[in-house]
Design brief:
442 residues; Amino acid/polyamine transporter I; two-stranded antiparallel sheet
Length: 442
């Protein structure tokens, strides 16, 4: 446990913050601030074009379905548990750094997703193979870098993608409905199996229905709480700005500033939530048909915007508003803290909404991360001279889902965050090497 903690501290050290923010800033400069300057363009090409999307047939995965699958992977426990933890550990200023990481991360997401589309190819069965490991192999010309990324991604799929998420669902069901962990584990595992065994088409159809509804309910509930606390909003935003620039106990100077709790927790929780820089969005957009690298890149920008600047911000404002208005119990953190804050304005319904949202978000994340893990596992087996990952990955993934429901996961949480961080390093290196090949709409 101690070794894992030390490795975690190294991986998520100040150099990681510099690398993540620096990569996003580089693509922001290269694009001339595309995410801000051309906001009307990318908004009209994404959200503004939803009602013009044509049905491409049952077998095809539409661009919108790919977006919902990507959002399913990114909108999860990080939007509830991660935000509460960031505010508890890093103060209100952590939200400012989540905004900044999302703003520059939008361009990182654009770059990795458009490169994934540029280098993807069809497998013999007609399905797409896409992701950072492909542009590392075909673009950078370094298959070993792709193998390294795939190893980290497969490990992360068993941790953050399955065990951590299923644990969140079973814990909620036990606390709120009294359902024993083994019973909920069997039901959750069965439901996941039914969906993922139907292939990418079934995963896309489920996320297309699940994500908009669950996110919409959570968004509306949060807005009700925030509007009811509107008189303290000026104080809340004042705290966010003031505490964002406080180095805290880390000391002064650039090093102290980068090690300050607000920066570390804001950036790391922002990345944990929206996954910009990890390369996962490049995989999750790989199945979209009848699209272009630029279009999918803009959808990836929207996902980072919606995940962090919308959903995470709403969670944070609910917590900070209640904290300023009436205070919060000492020692509260995570989902408990978020549920408490919602319940102050919505009563018992608030707790139900938080619990239900967390369970729904987590379930959507499980099925989306299966696709990501299966793609990277298949890449690994192909590099070893075998055809496909077959049944072994499915069995291991479902076993991880069940194990997450019935086991204590302190070490798994730590290792999962570690694997997530390690995914970023080969991916960011490839983005820098291929940055000249990233094109932006005129």
């Amino acid at each position: 446990m101690q070794i894992a903690q030390e490795l975690h501290n190294v991986v998520w050290g100040p150099w990681t913050m510099v690398l993540l923010l620096g990569t996003g800033l580089w693509f922001t400069i290269r694009s001339g601030g595309f995410q801000i300057r051309r906001l009307p363009l990318w908004w009209s090409r994404t959200v503004g074009n939803l009602w013009n999307t044509k049905d491409e047939g049952v077998a095809a995965v539409t661009p919108f379905q790919s977006v919902c699958t990507a959002l399913a992977a990114t909108i999860g426990t990080g939007n509830i548990v991660g935000v509460a933890t960031a505010l508890t550990a890093g103060g209100a200023g952590a939200l400012f750094w989540m905004w900044l990481s999302a703003l520059v991360g939008m361009m990182t997401a654009y770059a990795e997703t458009s490169l994934g589309q540029r280098y993807r190819y069809r497998k013999p069965d007609g399905q797409w193979m896409c992701g950072p490991m492909i542009y590392m192999e075909r673009g950078v010309g370094c298959p070993m870098l792709g193998i390294l990324y795939a190893v980290f991604a497969v490990a992360a799929s068993f941790g953050m993608g399955s065990m951590v998420q299923s644990n969140a669902i079973s814990t909620v069901l036990e606390a709120d409905a009294g359902i024993p962990l083994p019973a909920s584990g069997m039901v959750i595992t069965l439901l996941v199996a039914v969906i993922i065994l139907g292939g990418v088409g079934r995963i896309a159809r489920v996320t297309e229905r699940l994500v908009p509804v669950s996110a919409g309910i959570y968004l509306l509930s949060a807005l009700i709480v925030i509007i009811s606390c509107r008189r303290v909003l000026p104080e809340v935003f004042g705290r966010i700005w003031t505490e964002a620039w406080s180095p805290g106990a880390a000391g002064g100077g650039i090093a102290g500033f980068l090690m300050s709790r607000g920066v570390r927790y804001g950036v790391s929780r922002g990345v944990f939530s929206n996954e910009a820089g990890l390369g996962s969005l490049a995989v999750l957009h790989g199945a979209a048909e009848h699209t272009t690298p630029e279009e999918q890149g803009m959808w990836a920008m929207f996902e980072v915007f919606f995940d962090t600047i919308v959903i995470c911000t709403l969670t944070a404002l609910v917590i900070l508003c209640i904290q300023c208005e009436s205070g919060i119990p000492a020692g509260s953190d995570g989902a408990v803290l978020t549920a408490y804050c919602f319940s102050q304005k919505l009563g018992s319904l608030g707790k139900i909404l938080v619990s239900g949202s967390m369970a729904t978000f987590a379930f959507a994340t499980i099925i989306a991360w299966y696709y990501l893990g299966a793609q990277t596992a298949e890449y690994l087996t192909r590099r070893m001279g075998r055809s496909g990952c077959g049944r072994w990955y499915v069995c291991l993934y479902l076993a991880a889902v069940f194990a997450g429901c019935v086991c204590k996961l302190e070490l798994v949480w730590l290792l999962s965050d570690l694997w997530n961080g390690l995914m970023a390093f080969p991916n960011l290196l490839a983005l820098w090497l291929l940055s000249a090949q990233v094109d932006f709409p005129s």
